[in-house]
From TrEMBL:
Belongs to the cytochrome P450 family. Its cofactor is heme b. It is found in: Endoplasmic reticulum membrane. Keywords: Heme, Iron, Lipid-binding, Membrane, Metal-binding, Monooxygenase, Oxidoreductase, Steroid-binding, Steroidogenesis. Gene3D superfamilies: Cytochrome P450. It is a peripheral membrane protein. This is Steroid 21-hydroxylase. It is an enzyme of class 1 (oxidoreductase). Pfam families: p450 (PF00067). Its EC number is 1.14.14.16. PROSITE patterns: CYTOCHROME_P450 (PS00086).
């Protein structure tokens, strides 16, 4: 928590354009109206076309994996393109090939943003005012040089949803190799319950093994270790701690998901905890944050993660090549988002 007499975090103020954007803007009536508008538009989109858009990208990803013909490859770029195309289709009505220069530029810029905002000196700007200096005309400040205008910046913030899906899919794939029968169990459930057809999001309650796998992955490795900053709008207290008005509070999602008072063996990957009688509760999960600043893309992310995982496990068995000397690392690399270390995998089509 931070308490600032100027009632702002320096980095948040710069990134939000003085508290004006929907990600880190001040909690005002204008902000609430802006958020309601975006939330309503996304909800309408989800009802009308989202499922079909994700299905098309999942089937395209299936074709890409088939074309590799059981060659050992790093699938990170393919996951990135599939996740990005869901967003660009919904927002702009267009898809990109992974060789498209525009898409490559956007991905490069987004990666620069994640690396920049995840660096230790960003926190130092908020903690030590002497390090701050006035913005110079034409300076991009905390934005990489590729971000040249506000529209470009808002687009890149929206495309952070891509990191949610890409990272979650990669983490799910990584988990397959760390738990022996997880792939076989999910495949058998899909084959038996759905009698060979592709899953729909409405099937999630009929597929508890698949759902428990996804829930455990989101618990063990939430995409962002920390949630979007919140601000106390009045004096308050939590668990006996006094919190003055204007205190900036940054929820620790990783800590909440690894609290031994709530989760048994919190650092172990145990999807069965979310099955009936397993003791885990989805009500205690908060991988997309909470409160007024709950991630706007939560619904999109959940549907996309479910369908991508279901389609891939229905059609492929994923195995490690002999060149991979050890299991993929589930720990990831901490930053603004939790990144997965690169590794290669073989997608073996099921008979």
């Amino acid at each position: 928590m931070y308490h600032d007499s100027d009632s702002t975090l320096e980095t948040g103020n710069i990134v939000s354009g003085g508290g004006r954007n929907i990600s880190l803007g001040d909690y005002t009536e204008e902000w609430r109206a802006h958020r309601r508008l975006v939330h309503s538009a996304l909800h309408r989109c989800c009802q009308q076309s989202l499922h079909g858009v994700i299905e098309r990208q999942a089937l395209h990803l299936r074709k890409v994996l088939m074309d590799y013909q059981e060659t050992a490859v790093d699938l990170s770029e393919d996951f990135t393109v599939a996740a990005s195309n869901v967003i660009t289709t919904l927002a702009f009505g267009k898809e990109y090939d992974k060789t498209t220069p525009e898409l490559q530029e956007l991905h490069s810029c987004l990666n620069d943003i994640v690396a920049l905002w995840g660096s230790s000196w960003i926190s130092a700007l908020d903690s030590f005012p002497l390090l701050r200096r006035p913005q110079q005309p034409g300076s991009t400040g905390l934005w990489p040089s590729c971000c040249t205008d506000q529209r470009h910046r808002e687009l890149l913030l929206f495309k952070n949803l891509k990191h949610d899906i890409y990272t979650s899919c990669r983490l799910c794939l990584t988990s397959f190799f760390n738990v022996g029968q997880v792939q076989a169990n999910v495949y058998e459930e899909i084959r038996t319950v759905l009698e060979g057809r592709y899953p729909k999001y409405s099937d999630r309650h009929r597929l508890p093994v698949l759902s428990s796998l996804i829930n455990e992955m989101l618990r063990l490795r939430p995409v962002a270790p920390l949630a979007i900053p919140h601000r106390a709008i009045r004096d308050s207290s939590i668990a006996g701690y006094f919190i003055p008005k204007n205190t900036v509070i940054i929820p620790n999602l990783f800590g909440a998901h690894h609290d031994p008072a709530v989760w048994s063996e919190p650092y172990s990957f145990k999807p069965e905890r979310f099955l009936e009688g397993g003791g885990g509760s989805t009500r205690l999960l908060m991988p997309f944050g909470g409160g007024a600043r709950l991630c706007l893309g939560e619904t999109v992310a959940k549907i996309e993660l479910f369908l991508f995982t279901a389609y891939l496990l229905r059609d492929f068995q994923f195995v490690l090549p002999q060149s991979e000397g050890s299991l993929p690392d589930l720990r990831g690399v901490a930053s603004v988002v939790l990144k997965v270390k690169a590794y290669k995998v073989i997608a073996r089509p099921r008979p």
